[in-house]
From TrEMBL:
InterPro entries associated with the record: GH, GH_1_N_CS, Glyco_hydro_1, Glyco_hydro_1_beta-glucosidase
GO cellular component, one term: cytosol
Residues noted as binding substrate in the record, renumbered to the chain: Q14, H111, N155, Y276, W371, E378, W379
First-level EC class: hydrolase
Organism: Lentzea guizhouensis
Gene3D superfamilies named in the record: Glycosidases (3.20.20.80)
Taxonomic lineage of the native organism: Bacteria, Bacillati, Actinomycetota, Actinomycetes, Pseudonocardiales
Annotated protein name in UniProt: Beta-glucosidase
Length: 415
C-alpha cells in the first residue's frame, strides 16, 4: 500500500470565495438561482485567503494527495484570451506548498464553473468551447505541468449535461431534456482536446473523474428503463473515452464529426470513479418524455441529502466498468463521501466512509479521495448540506476537525 493515494477532494467554486479578488471573472454559478435559502459562494470557506491553514489541516490529517480544481474564470476571466497571471499565481503557490509537505497535487481543470461569457455564447451547446478549453488547458499546463502529479480535465461531465442543461437543477439552469445531448459530446471532445494538450506538456498522469451509479431496475420488466438510464448517465461518457464509441441508443443523437471520436479516445493513465449511491429505475408513466422514471431506494440508511448508503454499489460499479471495458486503466475513487448535519461527532459519516473505503480496497483501486476536506457551498443546496471531514463555521470561518477526520487519520497511518 506504499503507493496508495490517500486523499481528500474539493472544488474551487465551493470553497475559494474571493469572487472579486485577483482579476477573477464571473462563472455560470455566480448568480444561479434558485439556491437553498438564497445562499451564495461569494465567501464560501474563504480558501483563497486561508489556503495555508487548509494545507496545514491536510498535513495533520496525513493524506498524501489532494484533489482540487482550478477555477477557469480565475485563470481566464472571459474563458478566452491571455492568462490572468494573478489568478494562476494562486494555484502556483498552492502546488508548491503541497509538494513542500509531501502531498501530491491532483488537479481538476473544470469543476462546473464555466466562464459566464462563454455560456452567453452558447456554452457547452457549441463545439467551439472545446477549443477554448484546450487553450485554457495550455495556459495552466505551461505553468504547472512540471509539478502536478495527476490531471483530470473535466469533473463529472454527466452532471453538467443532466443537471445543468437537461433538467435545470444546476447552472446554467436549462431544461432541454434530450436536446441537451450535444453538450455531452462537446464535454467529451473537450476532454480529448485537453488530454492532447497535457501530453504535449509532458504531464505525468492524465485521467478522468466520471460520476457513476449502478442502475437497478425496479422489477425485471423495468430492465429497459435501467439500461436507458445507464447509457445516459454512465456509458455516454465512459464508452467514447475508453473505446472511441458511443452507446448505440444515443449515438445518432450526437453531433459527431469525422475525427471527433479519435480525439476523445486518448490513452489514459488512470480512471476516476466518483460514487455516491445507486439509482433505481422503472418504465415511464404515460406522458413522461423520458424512457425511465426514478424510483425511491428505501431499504438502506440515508445521508442528509436522502441518498441511500450502499457501499456494495461502489464495488458493483467498478466491477461493471471492468466487465464492459476489460482494458480499463488503474482505478481511483476520485470522490466518495456523504452529507450529515452533525457538528463534530459524526459516527454516521465514519460508518459511511468505512464501508465505502473497504469496498474500494476490495475492488483493487489505487487511490481513495474523500469528498470533502471541508464543509462547503453545496451547489443548489447552498450551505444546507455538510460533507466535510472538517466542520466550517461560516460566520467565523473557524475550522474544527470532526471525529471522522481523526478516524481517517488513524486509517491512513495504520493505527
Amino acid at each position: 500500500m506504499s503507493d496508495f493515494l490517500w486523499g481528500v477532494s474539493t472544488s474551487a467554486f465551493q470553497i475559494e470565495g474571493a469572487f472579486d479578488a485577483g482579476g477573477r471573472g464571473p462563472s455560470v454559478w455566480d448568480d444561479f438561482a434558485p439556491v437553498h435559502d438564497n445562499d451564495n459562494a461569494r465567501v464560501a470557506c474563504d480558501h483563497y485567503y486561508r489556503w495555508r491553514e487548509d494545507v496545514a489541516l491536510m498535513t495533520q490529517l496525513g493524506v498524501n494527495a489532494y484533489r482540487f480544481s482550478i477555477a477557469w474564470p480565475r485563470v481566464q476571466p472571459s474563458g478566452k484570451g491571455p492568462v490572468n497571471a494573478e489568478g494562476l499565481d494562486f494555484y502556483d503557490r498552492l502546488v508548491d506548498a503541497l509538494i513542500d509537505v509531501g502531498i501530491a497535487p491532483v488537479v481538476t481543470l473544470h469543476h462546473w464553473d464555466t466562464p459566464l461569457e462563454l455560456e452567453a455564447e452558447g456554452g457547452w451547446l457549441h463545439r467551439d468551447i472545446a477549443d477554448r478549453f484546450a487553450d485554457y488547458t495550455a495556459l495552466v499546463a505551461d505553468r504547472l505541468a512540471d509539478r502536478v502529479h495527476m490531471w483530470i480535465p473535466i469533473n463529472e461531465p454527466a452532471m453538467v449535461t443532466l443537471q445543468g442543461y437537461a433538467i435545470g437543477e444546476h447552472a446554467p439552469g436549462k431544461t432541454l431534456l434530450f436536446d441537451a445531448l450535444p453538450t455531452a459530446h462537446h464535454l467529451n471532445l473537450a476532454h480529448g482536446r485537453a488530454v492532447e494538450v497535457l501530453r504535449g506538456y509532458n504531464a505525468r498522469a492524465v485521467g478522468t473523474a466520471n460520476n457513476h451509479t449502478p442502475a437497478w431496475p425496479a422489477t425485471e420488466a423495468d430492465q429497459p428503463a435501467a439500461d436507458a438510464y445507464s447509457d445516459i448517465h454512465n456509458w455516454l461518457y465512459a464508452d467514447p473515452v475508453l473505446t472511441g464509441r458511443y452507446p448505440n441508443s444515443v449515438a445518432e443523437l450526437l453531433p459527431v464529426r469525422d475525427g471527433d471520436l479519435a480525439t476523445i479516445h486518448q490513452p489514459l493513465d488512470f480512471y476516476g470513479v466518483n460514487y455516491y449511491n445507486p439509482t433505481r429505475l422503472k418504465l415511464p408513466s404515460e406522458g413522461n418524455p423520458l424512457p425511465f422514471e426514478l424510483v425511491d431506494i428505501h431499504e438502506f440508511p440515508r445521508t442528509g441529502f436522502g441518498w441511500p448508503v450502499v457501499p456494495s454499489g461502489l464495488s458493483e460499479m467498478i466491477g461493471t466498468l471492468r466487465e464492459r471495458h476489460p482494458d480499463l486503466p488503474p482505478v481511483h475513487v476520485t470522490e466518495s463521501g456523504c452529507s450529515f448535519p452533525h457538528e463534530v461527532e459524526d459516527a454516521a459519516r465514519i460508518a459511511y466512509l468505512d464501508g465505502h473505503l473497504k469496498a474500494a480496497l476490495a475492488a483493487g483501486v489505487e487511490g481513495y479521495f474523500v469528498w470533502s476536506l471541508l464543509d462547503n457551498f453545496e451547489w443548489e443546496a447552498g450551505y444546507s448540506q455538510r460533507f466535510g471531514l472538517v466542520h466550517v463555521d461560516y460566520e467565523t470561518q473557524r475550522r474544527t476537525p470532526r471525529d471522522s477526520f481523526h478516524w481517517y487519520r488513524r486509517v491512513i497511518s495504520g493505527e
